[in-house]
Amino acid sequence: MADEASQVLLGSGLTVLSQPLMYVKVLVQVGYEPLPPTLGRNIFGRQVYQLPGLFAYAKHIVKVDGRAGLFKGLAPRLCSSAIGTVVHGKVLQVLCPLCAFVCSCWWVTPDRVLLSTTSREMVARSAATLITHPFHVITLRCMVQFIGRETKYSGTLSAFATIYREEGILGFFAGLVPRLLGDILSLWLCNMLAYLINTYALENGVSVTEMKSYSQAVTGFFASMLTYPFVLVSNLMAVNNCGLAGGLLPYAPTYSSWLDCWSQLHKEGNMSRGNSLFFRKVPAGKRYVWDERRFR
């Protein structure tokens, strides 16, 4: 219980600290650009037109809503973090004896241990994602309200009532499928790549042992980069056609499914939109529309 409580507190602290970053990221993902491009220099020193980065974007939010404005959607996100941590831990506790029994029935090999531990983690993460997704949807919609200056989702409990009244039960799970797929693919890619590197690319040794401890973090970074389109599509589907300006034209058409959203983003070349909040290039072949605060 003490370990679980410490994990919840740690997760809550990290959630609070990362809230401004996620807020800016979500608005960029939707396509909202309140500030026009400016002439700057890229990492090679060449003059190029760039979009405002994280700090300039956050400064604009503070100018409009004050410093507290950077923490819109924090309450449901904290609920999601705390509940997700508890569910994840409980599911692992239930699955540990089962995985131990399965391993005892087979000849234990490193690859079987990998499959067992990764499968257990996949089930735990998926259960946590499934249960906390309604809070994730509310978090995103609270943030996207900044675009149209709405107050439709002003509180967590009232947001639950609004979504249920307007969209029914399915409204709480908008964007769930691509989110689950992205999490599962990222987990397996991360663990498989780390296993291959630790087993075949590195030899035993003191310094190599230290390198192996970092391989999981490195492979996790690459896995998250490769599966980022699933995150983008999931977030867009969570706010699409929900009655907020950020989920309607001109920012987004009404998508028939997450596959339709994926297809549209792919055609527009926007599959990595919001992936980077620094050195943001102006989209090729598009012009900035001041009245709409976006590119088209």
UniProtKB/TrEMBL annotation:
Q: What's the protein's topology in the membrane?
A: Multi-pass membrane protein
The GO annotation for biological process reads: positive regulation of apoptotic process
Gene3D superfamilies, A to Z: Mitochondrial carrier domain
One of this protein's Pfam families, by short name?
Answer: Mito_carr
Subcellular localization? Mitochondrion outer membrane
Q: Where are the Solcar repeats?
A: 112-200
Keyword flag RNA-binding? no
Its GO CC terms? mitochondrial outer membrane
Which superkingdom, per the lineage? Eukaryota
Q: Which residues form a coiled coil?
A: none
Q: Which UniProt keywords apply?
A: Membrane, Mitochondrion, Mitochondrion outer membrane, Repeat, Transmembrane, Transmembrane helix, Transport
SUPFAM superfamilies referenced in this protein's UniProt entry, alphabetically: Mitochondrial carrier (SSF103506)
In terms of InterPro entries, this protein maps to: MCP_dom_sf, MCP_transmembrane
User: Where primarily located?
Assistant: mitochondrion
The record's listing under PANTHER family reads: MITOCHONDRIAL CARRIER HOMOLOG, MITOCHONDRIAL CARRIER HOMOLOG 2
Q: What does the similarity note say?
A: Belongs to the mitochondrial carrier (TC 2.A.29) family.
Q: Indicate what this protein is called per its UniProt record.
A: Mitochondrial carrier 2
**Source organism of this protein record:** Phasianus colchicus
